């Protein structure tokens, strides 16, 4: 007889009555406020701060409060937090915090002035945990880099987080990969992109964003005036959704790095991207690997490469464009004397001698270009640039 697996996001607080938890947490909040005044009026913390092996009164009070919140929420304290609470980065990934652990942690983060980067990847936070952290992000002005990937909170969690970031725009980098985000979540994200001009980097990879999501996010991308890096790889953008998303790229004048790999843009989507890049003179890195792009789609992209002067990195590996498509891309680069391209990645696509001959010719006129092909081999048309990002962030399978 099989054993039914319980969803960790269901009834996460069933062992602790909600009113009792709130009451206990409220008691500790009152203690925290009282202790703030006590610490402010005391010289004891100044006498011990900086002395090896000692803790100031403020640190002792904070540690005691955190342990009290953990008791109130019936969770095991995370010792790493006690060691990192005054550091610039708090990394607690894979710690199994769960919703209530996140709530206990959130109680201490709201007024923390030290932490700049918060990493809670893969902690089973679920909706309740996301909502607790959203409350933190709506008030804390120090945290600017947040990773909440792989936490199973879906659209309701994203709704809370987007609302918080709309109120407080301190966060500049947000990772929401692997959270089961679909078209409903896309609506909240689109609203955020229209108002949050301080958000510079957004990771939405490994979700279920589909055609409808693409049609929602495209217009928002067109209007966005802050985002410089977007990773939407490993989703389900294809057909009309992929085309609508690409049209958003056409009007965007801020985005520099875009990863749309492992979707289903196809030839029509590639054509839409090509049309966008004829107008877009800002994008520098584009990853379109594994997007069902055949030779026709590659030739469409090639038309853009004839005129584009800003794209430095183009990754189209693992597409069924064959040698014909690869040849068309490289020929277009050859014909563009103002090309800024530094890397053309066509790995895992078999090419013929005709392509190799063309590559040798391009070597003469574009010595700064690196062509990556085959499973392992690389064409180094120049010694690899000393500072060179081979892939946009998050493009490789995780």
- The radius of gyration is 25 Å
Overall geometric form = elongated
Strand content: 5-15%
> Structural class per helix/strand content?
alpha/beta
Into which percent range does the helicity of residues fall?
40-55%
Point out poorly predicted stretches: 12-55, 376-398
Q: Indicate the mean pLDDT.
A: 85
Whole-Å distance between the termini? 35 Å
- Give the number of DSSP strands: 12
Q: Report the biggest beta sheet as strand number plus sense, adding barrel if it closes.
A: 12 strands, mixed
- Number of discrete helical segments: 14
Spatially, the strands of the biggest sheet line up as 1-2-3-4-5-6-7-8-9-10-11-12
SSE order:
HHHHEHEHEHEHEHEHEHEHEHEHEE
Could you characterize what this model shows?
45% of the residues lie in helices and 9% in strands. The protein is built from 14 helices and twelve strands. Strands 1-2-3-4-5-6-7-8-9-10-11-12 form a twelve-stranded mixed β-sheet. Helix 9 links the parallel strand 5 (201-203) and strand 6. Helix 1 runs antiparallel to helix 3 (57-72), helix 6 (126-137) packs parallel to helix 7 and helix 13 (322-335) runs parallel beside helix 14. The longest helix has 23 residues, at 18-40. It is elongated, with a radius of gyration of 25 Å. The two termini are 35 Å apart. Mean pLDDT is 85; it is low at 12-55 and 376-398.
